[in-house]
Amino acid sequence: MKRRHFLATTGLSLGLALTVSTVAWAENAKLKIGFVGVTSGPAAAWGISNQRSMETRAAWLNELGGVDIGGTVYDVEIVPFDDQKDPKRAIAGMEKMAQEGIHYVVGPNVDDGAAAVRPVAEQNGIMYFPYAFPKELYTPPASNAILGMVANYQSGPAIYKYLMENKGVKKVAFIAGNESDPLSQRDSGAAAARELGLEVVSDSVTYQMDTTDFTPVLLPVIQAAPDLLVLSGVSPANAPQLIRSARELGYAGLISTETAQDAAVLAEGAGELANGFISVGGASTPELASDAMREFVDRYTKMFGEYNDESNTKVYALEYIIETLKANPAAIDNVEEFKKTMDTFEAPNPFMVGDAKLTYVGTTSFGQKRQVSVPLVVNEFKDGKFETLFVAQVD
Amino acid sequence: MSTTRLAGVLAFLLGVFVLVPLFINLTGRWDFYYTLTSVALLSVAAAGVWLTFYIGRINIGQGAYALTGGYVSAILITQYGVSFWLTLPLAGLFCAAVSVLIGLPILRLRGVYFAMVTLVLTEVARLTALALPVTNGAKGITSIPLPGELSLFGLTIIPDFSTLGNPKLAFYLMATVLMVLTYLVLWRIVNSRLGHLCRSLQQNEELSASIGVNTAMLRVLAYAISSFFGGLAGAIFVAISQSIYPSSFVVQDSVNFMLYCFLGGLGYVFGPMLGTLLLYFGWDLLSIAKEYQLLIYSGALIALMLVLPNGVLSLLDKKGGRK
Amino acid sequence: MEQILANGLYLGAQYALIALGLTLIFSLMNVLNFAHGQMYVFGGFVTYTVVAQLGLPFIVGLIASAVVLAVMGALIEKFLFRPVIRKSKRDESTMLLAAGIAFFLDAVILLLFGEKQRGVPKIVNGVLNWDMRIIMPYDRILIAVLAVALIVGFILFMQYSRTGRAMRALAQDRMAAQLMGVDVDRYSMIGFALGAMLAGLVGGLLVTITGINLGMGGPTSVKAFLMIMIGGAGVISGAIAGGFILGMMESVGLTVLAAYGDITYLVIFASLMVFLAIRPQGLMGKPWG
Fold first, then answer.
1. Which residue among A46, A247, C214, C232 sits deepest, i.e. has the most Cβ atoms within 10 Å of its Cβ?
2. A248 touching chain C per CB within 8 A
């Protein structure tokens, strides 16, 4: 009796959940933008900072009265999906986006997920903005993916070159976690360094992502005596520990990475040992941030309690989607129109001082414009804050 | 008894092949095709895990075979131009062969020891895929073509997937057919002499060895069948995502397969299928809960375990009835 | 060479402490606690909150971690594991419950403490540098000493206290212990609380060195499983041995195999499988634990 009751309730609530999720709101014109990424588990920091920066910007735009695209005013709504860093789930997420009639999706955050969603995105006419670097995603015949940030094979050479010229770096060592993304970044980074004429003294040391003591990992690398230690594709969780262990082993050279980091995390995890650490960031350093960027950081902090510096690089994808749609309203449900507009699109970059522009780039790397142009801001960590080392552009 | 069972099977087939597509057509929830395809494939792999449970072994290593199967299929298709349909059984057979090699030594372990070795096996498979040149290491294998045409004596049995207007439906049908076949095989095994022998292993291995059961042989056989299922599921997932990475199947997947079996009920052949449906589909439906998704999901899991510690299917048991 | 040994010992001390709690719970209740890693993470976050957010001394944070986790462990045993064990037909069913709890704690940690990596400032500054042969920061040495002290304290407790003796009796033969008048329910609860407390203490200790983030739970559980497999499941000396062996293996393996990079861990894991295939009960476990 009781069990039957239990079954009936379960069935009922399941049915209810189905209906609720199919019912669509129809009070205001909504512009739905998807997010498929990892917001739980070990890599949650990547996806959460991503989703939150989208939600912050969306709330801000809606507060200003929405966005005007081709004469219709839309409220921006972010539809998130947690793929748990599982490529199989990521496909389900992309299917859900297609189901909701969404044509523009930010994410996934990692290589395998980005590759796995490609068939779904292409079949359903979805443009997606992965934070993953494999070139096959962006080179023809692939055409629906747009790289949402600067790839490490673009930022790496710029950083190495700067350090060669300004700090006299000659010998470089690479260390990476034994996962797809970091290993691929290590390989392309080492190749770029060799091309620049640097001597790569160590590029075979890897570590498990769950390492709790990096001393044994770093020991052989430090013994190779590099001038520059590159932490390829390092996650924000591992970066402070690696820096700390390297410094405690007596390493005195430079340390850099091509991924975005959070200053608070570095300060807590490595303290002053992290001084001089070089990473790639967005445009929130005082020298570059516009008033809009400062307001964004304020709003983010108000909404979620604490800002995450990784969001600096993740604020752009949504901005590009909306601005491109404004430039060509026909693209709102037709990605072919979007692709056409991409070639000529240009709008001012609201987050940076000066006359920086939002454009699509990537011709050099991918043979077509499939990358958002964000300033390549290289930061140096100093006493709990990032300072801009130099700014470059990717073409 | 047998007529009710027949009716049950027919109702199930009707549901899977007619009602579900009909429901999807009516409601327009096309995304359910992929979710249900995943459920079908994961339940195929979970069926294998269930079979190892049936001989009294906790298997947390099915992800390793799913990954292996996926790579076998991907490598054969991209590097040797083999038809997908041929790679499917080959992937399963390769996994079965590997599992015999690995199983011979490790199946002597029992209880948590076996469980832990299989857990390590998943990680070993991932690291091997990262290190081997043939798997293309960290960069994975991408841009794998969709399954081509399958024809016998010039007669097209299955059309080329890339020419289909709706490959989702095709994948759904392929996965569910495979699921039905798998559970048919599983049901047949359980209700055969082999099944009786397996049960004797689960109860008391020494005893069954002492009455002349070749326990070592039996264990390896069950494990090989289990791994065969894992390989099949992996290969089809690769066909859907058209790509494979070392991280396509990880420890978490292996643990999930085990959980599907537990949730459905270890004493019931169809337990893993139901468990997969509830856990996988449940997670998808809960995505409306946003940041509380995992909280509700795990809370429900714990509650379910408190109410029905022997699996959801134990609901079917009559009071004090058969086990 | 000295450096490699020192690294191995330091890793071993922290690993052994993690494995101790897991093996204690396993020996008492035959439960493989999948949530052990999450408890470790929770302990780390409690210490972080007390020390970094509230600005209280480190020792207060450590005690807070121990208390919070002990209470949590006791509650989990009483209200979750006990009824499920009583009702389920197969011992293994508790694995689903344990995994559910692991997910649940993951969710709670994410909601309570956020997604970011957290760390507590160094408690001691400076680095010991013995002639460039051993380089070891003082805080690591302190943590290693604390860990060893906790291990010794735990062994003494299990060996000589009344509670410890009761728990050992329970681990050896549940039925016999019950007949001899040991309150099984009570000591199972105490044992679980103690195991959880140990996890929390390690979390609290290591947050000063490695920091903590919500992703560390699952992998930590898996590592702890490895250690108790090496030493033998359910045996306390086995867990300690397993911890130190795994620490040494990593330290030596990483140095010797550095040139081959990508396969270091493959070799470590594969040799572990071979070892277990040859010696199925670990170093000193009961066979077929």
1. C214
2. yes
Q: Determine contact: A208 vs chain C, CB below 8 A.
A: yes
Residue at C75 is within a domain: yes
Q: Is B113 on the interface with C (CB under 8 A)?
A: yes
- The answer to whether the CB atoms of B248 and A112 lie below 8 A apart is yes
CA dist B224 → A96, B55, B181, B255 (Å): 36, 12, 17, 19
**Minimal Cα–Cα distance from C32 to chain B, Å?**
8
Contact partners, residue C172, CB within 8 Å, separation at least 6: none
The answer to whether B148 touches B83, Cβ cutoff 8 Å, is yes
Verdict on whether the full-model pTM lies above 0.80: yes
Q: Is CATH 3.80.10.10 what the domain over A27-149+290-374 is classified as, yes or no?
A: no
Report d(CA C126, CA A241) in Å as an integer. Answer: 16
Q: What is the pLDDT of residues A57-72, one digit of tens each?
A: 999 999 998 999 988 8
Q: Where are the domains of chain A?
A: 27-149+290-374, 152-259
Protein fold of A152-259: Rossmann fold (3.40.50)
End-to-end Cα separation, chain A, in angstroms: 69
Cβ-nearest to C269 among B109, B123, B262: B123
pLDDT digits (tens, 9 = 90+) for A73-110: 999 999 999 988 899 999 999 999 999 999 999 989 88
| Counted domains in chain C | 1
Residue C179 belongs to some domain of the structure = yes
**In which residue are the tokens 């609860």 written?**
C189
Chains with ≥3 Cβ pairs under 8 A against A?
B, C
CB A304 within 8 A of CB A52: yes
Q: Which of C107, C273, C281 comes nearest B124 by C-beta?
A: C273
Q: Note down the domain range covering C140.
A: 2-214
C100, B109: Cβ pair inside 8 Å? no
